[in-house]
Here is the input.
Amino acid sequence: MLLAVATLQAQAQDKMLTMEDAIINPALQPENLRQLNWVAGSDDFTFVKDNALVRGNAKSTKHNTILTVDKLSAAIQAAGGKEVKSFPAVQWKDANTLVLNLQGKIFNYNLKDGKATIVTTYAADAENAELDPTKQRIAYTKGNNLYVSAPGAADVAVTNEKNEGIVNGQAAHRSEFGISKGTFWSPTGKHLAFYRMDQTMVTDYPLVDVAPLPAKLNNIKYPMAGGKSHHVTVGVYNTATKQTTFLKTGEPAEQYLTNITWSPDEKHIYIAVVNRDQNHMKLNQYDAATGDFVKTLLEEKHAKYVEPEKGLYFVPGKPNQFVRVSERTGYDHLYLYDTNGKEIRTLTKGDWMITDVLGFSKDGKKLYYSSTAESPLERHFYSVDLNNGKNTRLSQGSGTHSAKLSPNGNYIIDTYSSQVTPRKIWVVNTKDGKVAQTLLTSKNPVADYALGEVTIFPIKADDGTDLYTRMITPPNFDKNKKYPVVVYVYGGPHLQLVTNSWMGGANLWMQLMAQKGYIVFTLDPRGTSARGLEFEQATFRQLGTVEMADQLRGVEYLKSLPYVDASRMGIHGWSFGGFMTTTMMLKSPETFKVGVAGGPVIDWNYYEVMYTERYMDSPEQNPEGYKNANLLNHVKNLKGKLLMIHGTVDDVVVWQHSLAFLKKAVDEGVLLDYFVYPGHPHNVIGKDRVHLMRKVTQYLDDNLKATPQQ
Here is the structure.
């Protein structure tokens, strides 16, 4: 069944994309509203337009410019700051007070009197800065230590760790398990919980900066699969006493402390503690004042792995109740619990995933969330009644909705796109889902360009599972001609490439390739996200195997099409996609004439411990799986042309992966092509990305001999 078809071919479209257009031209991206946010404690919203701050209200279509950058700059300078030329990031203390974090200072700007004041200053070289809930105190890191700056007081060093192998206040566990930061303010800002990560037992890994002469060594701590992992604890800093207490999270030291959540009364901290094997989670409660373990509320186990990624959501007005997200049924769903660990009610169920928790209504009777309930290809938002579990869809229109709930819970800012809709932004009433007003209807930014038709449809895996695919055919497509194909691949956990969003989730480079005469094809195999645990865990202990089988089903489909030239097929991917590209070139060597693998994992023994051991177990537990996935064992099979690309200071997939592959190729007498980006980490960004995609495109052109359609 054809799920969705969108054509971007319309009237007289004849412009051709340049590589700069495809990669870095902001004018070809859908129009947006910069810094669109709700105002604290209200149903007002603001956004930045023409370097000025515009304010509106959910109930009125009237929008007013409330502050220009010139007026703000004058106030900032009058308060002792420097000139501001573009509108800075804005936060709200209350409905009349802006909070601005710039120039190493926290400013308050009062809309009524037009004056700015400096609340506090902090170190110019600060990193990981986070304002407390009152927006008047800031936590930040400098080096490996944590500091707090508050009004009228000198900065306080929360930690004073001399050993650089011990890091405070930064994201731990290499940002797995939904971890995105290392500091956690209590609800009123009286306390600050933070990660302390002892990495002294983790082996140093060398990155080399080749810019200076001589080159400079930069050692990082990189725990590899099967090796020693870091030890993490959680400190609790009291801003009044300036004392720190560490939670007694116990042994073994090699465990993962995730989903840190404060209780509303600030007396307790809840942590999802995951064992190193990642198959057992305990939701533990700790006393924030003493650090003592209080109790385990619940446990979850799985034969393969558990992966808690969201904290607890306490119900307003009911400090003894919280909602949590669990994948225990095979899909992420919402459950209402009390603080004794007793489940009160299942709030959602079905063969679909909760993707985001938006917040509660002001009275705490309803919770708002986003999910894949309509389709894995789409995102919609809903309300659920906590008293009876009744769910109501609020979003309108097939496609992808990104939702932001107002502080009062009365409205949602809905940012929407679909295959044929670049972007629309609505204010939606949470009572009935009706649109209160339209804030933006983006024009098609590529309306003048000759683009290919984008089609999304499923094909079947060998076990009958639906696999969603996206195909882009060239402009002026002629079914009587034969076309070369480029397969763009990722294929790993936590990513979905094919969606009912603008251009089907494709980027403009793919459309540039279609303009050059290629069919561009992408398939999300088993192992990728948004399809539930069974779909994701199909690759457990055998990365690269099931994913390859699914990609080959896509190839079979392509070969069945009379207009596909099966002798001219190429494949390209980055990171896990680089691993998959190399896997396809070596383990199915007759399939693709050419491949371009960027930042590829070559040997999972060299990859980080949390990610790798979740999906592969440890090398000791799964030697056969590691052996089969190790692409060094398959170098001799290469028949097509392969270009491998790597950043020289990649701290995610370290450079050693592809260098080891090169060495093995030399040993085996196998020829391949190689290119490095000096000074780039895992992703090549900025103007250098234009160079990267030119390199990729040229290599595909040289080996597939595609010619632009006339």
